[in-house]
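Notes continue from the previous slide.

Worked example: a multi-chain complex. Inputs as given:
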Amino acid sequence: MTTEAVSTATGQLQNLTGVITLKLRTPSRLRNLELVLLLFAIAINAGSFVLVQFGVLGEIEPGMLSASFVLAGLALAMHVALRISAPDADPLILPIATVLNGTGLAMIYRLDLAKGFEGWGAASVRQIVWTTLAVIVATVVLAGLRNYRVLQRFTYLAMFTAIVLLLLPLVPGLARTDDVAAKVWIDVAGFSFQPGEIAKIALGVFFAGYLVQHRDSLAVGGRKLLGMRLPRIRDLGPILLIWAAAMGVLVFQRDLGTSLLYFGLFLVMIYVATGRLSWVLLGMGLFLGGAVIASQTLVYVNSRFTVWLDAFNPRYADGDAYQLVQGIFGIAQGGMVGTGLGQGRPNIVPLAESDFIIASLGEELGLAGLFALLALYLLLVSRGFRIGFAGRDDFGRLLAVGLSFVVALQVFIVIGGVTRVIPLTGLTTPFLAAGGSSLIANWIIVAILLRLSDAVRNQPRLVVGP
Amino acid sequence: MSVVVLVMFLALFGSTTVISAIEADNLAAQSNNRRVVLDSYSAQRGAILVEGTPIAYSEPSDDVYRFQRIYSEGDKYSGVTGYFTLNQGSTGLEGSLNRQLSGTANSQFFDQLNAIITGQEPTGASVATTLDAEAQQAAWDAMQGYEGAVVAIEPATGRILALVSTPGFDPNPLASHTTSDVIEQYTALDEASPSPLQNRAYGGAQYSPGSTFKIVMTAAALENGYAPDSQFDNPATLTLPGTSTDINNPVVGQCGGGGDTVSMATALNLSCNIPYAELAQQLGSDTVADMAEAFGFNSTTSIPMTTTASRYPRDVDDAQLMLSAFGMSSVRVNAIQNAMVVAAVANGGVLMQPSLVDSVIGADLSVIDEFEPTELGRPISAATSSTMIDMLVDGVSNGAASGARIDGVAVGGKTGTGENGPGEPFNLWFSGFAPADNPQVAVSVVVGDGGGRGQQLSGNALAAPIARQVMEAVLNQ
């Protein structure tokens, strides 16, 4: 009798445990999946470093190899932070960011070896420091931003921040003096920084907050033209303002890429907010008009267009188009499977570690490697969109879609520029290219997306598969 | 939204595919693509072989280019190998077979793939030449001290047995990995006079052919109803129509010691100019030009270096036509063209494609490409060929080409002394073949600058003995 009672009690206890396990398992399963993928990413990164060292040095050099594990440690630390602070967050984003960042590091290191740079002079050493900083900042953002809706309160502060950041490179004393092309850099205490990279996050927050408040009036149709309902005249204010700002960037900072990035971000977000295609068409018309006028009147923009259209003309191929043409030669040389890490000649191309890192990767990893990288970006962006589409509040929805889109657009502008789909501009490839501001900005985007995805999954009755 | 992103990424997938897959070959062929040049240095470049012995090969070096090109008998073979420089271009076989030697030819695609998969160092193919080491040596030795060229061809196949251009040069300094040294060397060679960089065997340094052109004239005559005993007026001098210019025979006076008329056979044997001028006028400009072009004039060929076309002018007036009959006026010839003419005559009238390449051998010793005799055309009939062989043998044994005689062997040939204007040194020529009943070798020799003695020497005195030594080198094996 007693034994039976005990066994029944045990049975109930087992049932109870079963229920609890079931409840707890979902988030930890996501994190376990993330851990597996993360270890895979770390293995790929370590493999890249080993291949680079074999390819260039012919032997393993433990110093830099251990430096490559800095990123691994940081990513694992962020993984732990996610387990504690955002257990329901998307499991793919962190591994993708890690493998992209690591691939970039390996290529930058490879180029340092080719150029004989060591110590603080080596871009890879600085990139490791920047990576450390970026992942720490991202972890702080993730842990500090327990409720992303707080950001909506800072809509106009974000706008102000974005404007200040955009104007910084024009401030005398901060502006980099040796800059010949785009004026998008500042020098602070010996560090170069592109404030525009951070500005894109601030702009994303601002656009999301602003559009949530004004979407209803912006969605109201005005008169019809060619079967399409145009916005009302009085609602045109914001788009004209943003357009003017984008044109300002183009004219004063001479940077077509940044200009296109901000304006594209705005168009996509206004489209998602209002569901009206007319805004997009109107905006694209405005931007193309502005860009065409700029290409005719501004020498700098004009030369970018000429070089784009006529790169292989011997008049430009060894001059203005040298970088572009040599980059394309590099990708072509890579062919299907590439020369292998450390076995090509990516260092022929000027700025092979930053603006043209995709050409360097194309040369050594081949078309297969480029496709893999593009697929990773596509996956990252699609995870971001998925977070956005699943979001229940408009601000979170807009913010997730906007920030994901800005990554996609930046990838398109940079790789499109290197492969002559569009004119070449001075943006950096997210996560891959050497440059601190870009790394920090993109890791912050990662943190925000992770926080948003955690919030999405926390909501009851809204199931998103892993 | 997602569609926009998809379109953007599809554009990137597309653009990268276009660059690395579709346009890759075109991009690799661009002259300012430094990677291709550097790669062709970094692969172990294949050797160039003469009878199995490398005359050009690559050895490991400890700089970034990984291999150093070495020429073992650089001067002697410089007309064949050309030079191979880091970024100043390449000539000769090094230039024309660069893709095979560097392992980047399409035919080596699977070898490259295999090398990638197995992790082997890429290695270029080796090129076995058709050259005969002894003939090349004989030609090189005989040409020492003279500016000019020797080309010897196996008439039945077109295999080039010897190809010498003098002065030669040492390609080794040009293969230096220090660009400034290369440019210095190149400039020195380029500015030397006569410049060793001019290829006199197949390149742009061409000579007026003198009386060797009478071989082409005789062929045109026999193909157009003339016979060796066809008679021509035999004046001591002839004034060219429409001019006040008189032309003479080499031995001034009537041809063959007198008589109102003289036969074509005698005119060829003694190399008389006036009867051939008359013949040209009778045949007409087009008939002569057609025959010259049937032998390869006015077009390039690939040996596999692209030859410079030898020139025979079309649409000329009678005076120029009559001067052209004995290789004056604006006729310009390189040694390979004259060798092709005499080889076709010796080969029953069949002109074979001349070639330096016997086979291309992969790094794994598999034969990638093998020489196959190719017929270029039949400028003359077998009957004409047979008649001409007899006439040319007679020229050596009893006529003006006595310098080419070899004891016990029937040698056929024709001398030439090209004039370059009053007081200018002659070009001394000999074109011939041996043995007459079964020609093993056809050879053409040109010595420019009068062999250093102005107008004192003749083709028979200087060029014919050089040709004889080359023919002996072939026949004595």
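Summary box: Residues 2-22 of chain B form the longest helix (21 residues). The CA atoms of residues 81 and 93 of chain B lie 5 Å apart.
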